[in-house]
Amino acid sequence: MDRDVTMAGSSRPATLDVVATDGGSDYALLDSGNGRKLERFGKFSVDRPEPQAMWQPADAASWSSADAVFKAGSEDEDGDGGRWRKLRPVGEPWPVHVLGVTALCRLTGFRHLGLFPEQVPHWQWMVERLQGVGGATPRVLNLFAYTGAASLIAARAGAAVTHVDASKKAIAWAKDNQAASKLTEAPIRWILEDARKFVAREVRRGKRYDFILVDPPKFGRGPEGEVWDVFAHLAPLLRDCASLLAAQSALVLTTYAIRASALAIDGLVRECLAGRPGRIKSGELAVIEQSGGRLLPTSMFTRWSSHEAAS
Known about the structure:
The chain is an alpha/beta fold and 311 residues long. The protein contains 6 helices and 17 strands. Helix 4 (195-205) packs parallel to helix 5 (230-244).
């Protein structure tokens, strides 16, 4: 949803866009259907739940290629809990390469592998914006940063990165990815903290960032038991993030698995950035299926950039 607007707080009716990707050369959505998806991450293929794959598989024979299958827990069919069944030996962790960095994938009990290929267009867009920052080293804030692919891609592009996550295990995984990417000397600050607390403190300090990524879960807990609820806490967090944005800057918000519309996310970002010149684009991220060419939706997003105010 590209539109020429003078202010982020424009009240003009919103339209939505679909940003689709094949995920890069080291990933493929091989097929999908019957509430599942068959994917290749590097040298291994996995079969895992995907409720939005409501259609029939396009290539039923290809599913026998899966090296591992995820089965959701009996009481958590719609959630993340469950277990993997390995059909062939899977050496963990194994490397997957994306935009010049290396992510080490693992079969976790939350069905994820540590990498979200649908984010590739956002990471490419981030690199383009960072290249447009003149003068000093660009500053990137990555909130709910998980295993750090975006942090490493930003650092490789020349940015000084502040990586914030509430999980000690996730930060350790991100540091493993840093070593695998040969970016151990890159200027990355690893912050184990509740995102809301960290951002509020940065506001008090008068800090500014050239690019902010916000990728929150629907629910979570901070390292000291702080509760995160996306419906209760996202709006105040974004208002604080708006205070951290430099004069020429950009922001990406991605939301997964919540009962909300992309229009709601669009409206929230417009309110939080009201009065700031720039362009907003909102909609859904999707992965292009290899077998049938269908678009599998993964998440909602809104992104804003002051760099495009005059476009």
